[in-house]
Amino acid sequence: MSDRIASETHVLSRRKLCLGTATAGLLGSIVQAESGNRAAAAQAGDAWKGLKVGVASYTLRKLPLDTAIAAIQRVGLQYVSVKDFHLPLKSTADERKAAVRRFKDAGITPLSCGVITMKNDEANVREAFEYAREAGFTTIVCSPDPASMPLLDRMVKEFDIRLAIHNHGPEDKKLPGPYDVMKAIEGYDRRIGLCIDVGHTARAKTDPAEAIRKCRERLYDVHLKDLANTGVKAVNVEVGRGVLDLPAIMKALLSIRFPHHVGIEYEKDADDPLPGLAETVGYLRGVVRSL
After folding, report:
1. Helix (H) and strand (E) counts in the chain
2. How many Å separate Cα 50 from the centre of its chain?
3. For residue 109, what are the β-bridge partners?
4. For residue 192, which of 232, 224, 238, 159 has the smallest C-alpha distance?
C-alpha cells in the first residue's frame, strides 16, 4: 500500500510542477496547453479540467471572514466548504444568508459546510440540517455517531441535503477509513455518503486514489492535503512536499469526473496560511496540467 501512496509519480520535478505554475495559479492566467483537449480547456479558463477545486475554510480558521474570502480570491479559487469559524452554527438565518452572499459576491461558491460533529440526538442533528438549509448548502461534511444512522436517514429524506461523513484516521476507532464509512452507511438512503480525507485515509493504511474510485457512487466531498509521512502522528506539509501520491489522487478524481467539492485543507501555518496555500494551489495546477 505504501508503494501506491508514495509512488514514483510523486517524485515529479517540483520546479516543473510548483515553481513553473505558481505564478500562473496566483494571477489566474490561462496556461497555454500543448494540444487538443488541453488547449480547449485553457481557452475556456478551466485549469482544473472540470474539477471543482476549492478550499476547506478550516485552512483559514484564524482569519476573519472577509480576510478569508480575500485569501481564497488571492489564490484564484472559486469554491469553498465553510467551517463554522466563518459561519457559526448558532448564527441566525439572516446571518447565514449574509455570509453566503459575501462569498458569492466575491465570486466564490459555497458547496458544502463542515466538518460538523453530530450526536445521536434529533435536536442536535436537526440544528445542523436547518443551518445548512438556511445557508443554502447542499452537502454537510460531518462526523456523526455511527449509532445515529437511522436518524440521519430520516433527516436526509426530510431536508433533501446530502451528508458526507468524514473519516478521521486511526485515532477514530469507529470510522477511521472510507471503507468503514461505506460499511456503516450500507442500506441507508444514498444521500448519506462520505468525504474522503486523503491524509487520514493514508494514515489508516488505505490508498486514497483507490478509495476514491471504489467509493465514487457515494463520494460527496474530498479533503486534499499532504503529509510528511503516513504514521499515526504524521504532520501536514505543503502539498507536493510530502509522501502522498497527489498525481494519482488527482488522476482518480478526473477519471470518475468527480462533480462535487475538492477542498484543499492546508492545516499547517494556521496564523499565516496563505503562502503554503498558494504553493499548494500552484503544485496541484501543475499536476492537473500534466495529466
Report:
1. 13, 10
2. 15
3. 79
4. 159
71 residue type, one letter: A
- pLDDT, tens digit, for every residue of 242-265? 999 999 999 999 999 999 999 999
Helices (H), 107-245: 122-135, 149-159, 178-185, 198-203, 208-214
Mean residue pLDDT across the chain? 89
For residues 144 and 267, give the distance between their C-alpha atoms in angstroms, rounded to a whole number. 22
**Which residue, 55, 40, 6, is CA-closest to 284?**
55
- Residue 151 vs residues 185, 192, 202: alpha-carbon distances, Å: 12, 11, 30
Tell me if 9 sits within 8 A of 247, measured CB to CB.
yes
Residue 253: which H helix or E strand, with range?
A: helix 246-255
Residues counted in the chain? 291
Instruction: Write out the DSSP string of the chain.
Output: -HHHHT-GGGG--HIIIIIHHHHHHHHTPPPPPSSHHHHHHHHTT-TTTT-EEEEEGGGGTTS-HHHHHHHHHHTT--EEEE-TTTS-TT--HHHHHHHHHHHHHTT-EEEEEEEEEE-S-HHHHHHHHHHHHHHT-SEEEEEE-GGGHHHHHHHHHHH--EEEEEP--TT-SSS-SHHHHHHHHTTS-TTEEEEEEHHHHHHTT--HHHHHHHTGGGEEEEEE-EES-SSTTPPEE-TTSSSS-HHHHHHHHHHTT--SEEEE---S-TTS-HHHHHHHHHHHHHHHHH-
Q: What is the pLDDT of residue 268?
A: 96
Query: Could you report the per-residue pLDDT of 14-67, keeping only the tens digit for each?
Result: 434 443 444 344 334 333 333 344 444 443 458 999 999 999 999 999 999 999
| DSSP 3-state of 36 | helix
